[in-house]
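Entry 12.
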Amino acid sequence: MGYKILLTAGLVAAVLVGVALIRGVAHLLLRNKKRDRSRFWIAQATHLLALGGLLAIVIGIWLNRASELATVGGWLAAGLAIALQRVITAFAGYLIILRGGAFSVGDRIMIGGVRGDVVALGFMQTIVMEMGQAPGETGSTEAGEKDSDPSMWIHGRQYSGRLVRITNDKIFEKPVFNYTRDFPYMWEEIVIPVSYHDDYRVVERIMLETARKHTAPIVEESRKQLSDLRGQYFLSEDPNLEPETYLRLTDNWCELAVRFVARPRGARQLKTVMSREILDGMRAAKIGVASGTYAIVQMPTLEVKQLS
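Predicted 3D structure (tokens):
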């Protein structure tokens, strides 16, 4: 027992000295490259080799019989299964993604509070090119999670420039929203408040004509996709692909909304073009957008009297 202890201590010390020598040599060779990545990778490789050497030393010295090796191997396997539970689950998620067709490279998805285009799919992680979100949208679907979401400065579904890595085990915990997989279209709305003093029918006609003009090609494209979707899934309601307008009465104005089909990519540009045309039509009809602005301070009425 004493011999094994001394031998183990000596070999461990030798390994540590070897690690220190390797790091010292690497430091001398790369002393003029302070930010070179070679430093990082040499340190990581040295640590891994040292860990493997230490494990080999301990096993070779203290475990001599096959029964001991089998017992320790079983305990190590159980420990690794517990310690690497998330890794195993992530790999299982990768297999589910490939088999189940939840998403693939090039799809626009939202998972784990992150939305964007899938640019890479690995055994453990999915890499997403993040996109922004329109006003009123939240990146999370669970209560209490919104506050922990990263800040977003892009007010539209366009790239923010950040690449986000998401572990594949999220498909077992979070819902996956796919914008482009089975039905690569989505319904959008433009909402405009109209004063009760103005004729809402004129605005409704302008909105409907504008939507029909700009979405006619998209409507034709989406008809076949919708037919395929009906054959694959049960739809309790037959969605209308043609633009529609809706009216809602409020305390301050009539709220008109035009609903139309758009492609997931380019929806912001489409809404911008339509909004400009609608505003031009309203301006030509001498109808303004209703506003909640109030006059707080007013000039009192002045009376001028001439004294004789």
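Annotation: Confidence is low (pLDDT under 50) at residues 140-144. Residues 186-284 form a domain with the Alpha-Beta Plaits fold (CATH 3.30.70.100).
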